[in-house]
């Protein structure tokens, strides 16, 4: 029997438990549970260099997360170990120093009186993840991450429609627009001053999964380095990098779908928090895909109602300002709550047409230009 080629032996370093846990947990978020055709992708690739930097990499080839931390390095090198096991082990020990030592085909993790030995995965089988050749662009993290957080909920989770699982990054004359849709709703947010991020002749489609990880892992304070390649994109700071393949294909032409709020036949303005609380209560009776019915009446009264047969019903009224004709329309309550919750102003305005045409949700005096288009539910 031919012996398995061993990972580079002799790697030794000491790190602080808390920082090592943070790095391992971040990188492991990109790891495939089964590894598909490459079992080595169930592991973390851990590279230790002579400068005292430990780089942990997790990937499923579509999404890659690289996390860096510092350590006291005795012997540099590279090894691959089960992402779940390694993360669980370092998370389970008490705070303090952790010693990591690679010998033969195992890695020993020692903390205080605790020691465990984990089998290694073959590092020579781990895919080479090349660098993106283009230069990064530095942008303000707070603005970009806030915009991504507003539009990402509208992206589809259906992998059979891959185009709709992405976030469109589209340059505009004033900056950058982020758009997402699952065909039932569409969210849009415009950022000024970021016109240099995406080339004028380029429409970048980034997986929503990637943007969720960017929002989860990168801090909103400071800057983020955005690097856009021909088929991939990376978001990074000095400690963390989220890298992803982009989605190929044409995003739906959404521009003709967006009405001008000021010209919509009915417009209802209301306190956003009160609207959110009312929908949250009424949707308790919106079971089995039951919508929440919204009756916008003369005098500015909005009545919310949900009825689920054999379970019960709920209704609540609140006051606002109605401009135009009364409208009765029903919405998916979760989608409605998403739209209301993502608006960044105290007052929210709904542009309405009828029971079949989409409604437009926007903040009153919202300088961010966030809008959500929401299809009604037929009842």
Q: Top keywords for this entry?
A:
single chain; alpha+beta; DNA Polymerase III, Chain A, domain 2; 3 domains; 13-stranded antiparallel sheet; 26 strands; disordered N terminus
Give the count of helical stretches: 6
**Sequence of strands across the biggest β-sheet:** 5-1-7-8-9-6-2-3-4-17-16-15-10
Number of strands: 26
Distance between the termini: 68 Å
Secondary-structure-based class equals alpha+beta
- The CATH topology of the largest domain is given as DNA Polymerase III, Chain A, domain 2
Which blocks of ≥5 consecutive residues have pLDDT under 50?
Answer: 1-7
Largest sheet: 13 strands, antiparallel
The assigned CATH architecture of the largest domain is Roll
| Count of distinct structural domains | 3
| CATH top-level class of the largest domain | Alpha Beta
Question: Helix content range of the residues, please?
Answer: 10-25%
Radius of gyration: 25 Å
Mean pLDDT: 92
CATH superfamily of the largest domain: DNA Polymerase III, subunit A, domain 2
What form results from the Cα inertia axes? elongated
* Proportion of beta-strand residues: 35-45%
Question: Mind explaining what this structure looks like?
Answer:
The protein has 379 residues and is α+β, with helices and mostly antiparallel strands. It folds into three domains: 12-125, DNA Polymerase III, subunit A, domain 2 (DNA Polymerase III, Chain A, domain 2), CATH 3.10.150; 137-255, DNA Polymerase III, subunit A, domain 2 (DNA Polymerase III, Chain A, domain 2); 259-374, DNA Polymerase III, subunit A, domain 2 (DNA Polymerase III, Chain A, domain 2), CATH 3.10.150. 17% of the residues lie in helices and 41% in strands. It contains six helices and 26 strands. β11 and β12 (175-181) form a beta hairpin. α1 runs antiparallel to α2 (83-92), α3 (141-151) crosses α4 (208-217) and α5 runs antiparallel to α6. The radius of gyration is 25 Å and the shape is elongated. The N and C termini lie far apart (68 Å).
């Amino acid at each position: 029997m031919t012996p398995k080629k061993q990972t580079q032996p002799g790697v030794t370093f000491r790190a602080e438990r808390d920082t090592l846990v943070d790095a391992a947990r971040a990188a492991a978020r990109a790891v495939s549970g089964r590894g598909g055709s490459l079992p080595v992708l169930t592991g973390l690739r851990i590279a230790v260099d002579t400068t005292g930097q430990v780089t942990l990499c997790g990937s499923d080839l579509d999404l890659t997360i690289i996390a860096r931390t510092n350590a006291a390095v005795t012997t540099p090198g590279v090894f691959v170990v089960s992402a779940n096991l390694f993360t669980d082990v370092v998370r389970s020990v008490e705070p303090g120093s952790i010693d990591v030592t690679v010998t033969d085909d195992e890695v020993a993790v020692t903390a205080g009186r605790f020691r465990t030995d984990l089998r290694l995965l073959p590092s020579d089988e781990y895919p080479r993840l090349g660098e993106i050749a283009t230069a990064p662009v530095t942008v303000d993290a707070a603005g970009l991450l806030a915009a991504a957080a507003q539009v990402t909920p509208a992206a589809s989770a259906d992998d059979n429609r891959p185009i709709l699982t992405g976030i469109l990054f589209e340059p505009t004359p004033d900056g950058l627009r982020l758009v997402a849709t699952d065909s039932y709703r569409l969210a849009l947010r415009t950022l000024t001053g970021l016109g240099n991020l995406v080339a004028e002749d380029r429409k970048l489609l980034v997986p929503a999964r990637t943007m969720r990880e960017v929002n989860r892992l990168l801090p909103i304070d400071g800057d983020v380095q955005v690097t856009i390649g021909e088929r991939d994109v990376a978001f990074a700071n000095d400690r963390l990098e989220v890298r992803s393949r982009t989605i190929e294909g044409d995003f739906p032409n959404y521009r003709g779908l967006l009405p001008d709020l000021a010209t919509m036949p009915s417009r209802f303005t209301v306190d956003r928090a009160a609207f959110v609380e009312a929908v949250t209560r009424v949707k308790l009776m919106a079971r089995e895909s039951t919508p929440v019915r919204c009756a916008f009446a003369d005098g500015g009264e909005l009545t919310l109602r949900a009825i689920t047969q054999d379970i019960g019903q709920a209704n609540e009224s609140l006051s606002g300002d109605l401009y135009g004709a009364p409208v009765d329309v029903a919405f998916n309550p979760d989608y409605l709550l998403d739209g209301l919750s993502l608006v960044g102003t105290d007052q929210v305005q709904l542009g309405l047409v009828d029971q079949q045409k989409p409604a437009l949700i926007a903040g009153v005096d919202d300088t961010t230009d966030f809008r959500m288009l929401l299809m009604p539910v037929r009842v």
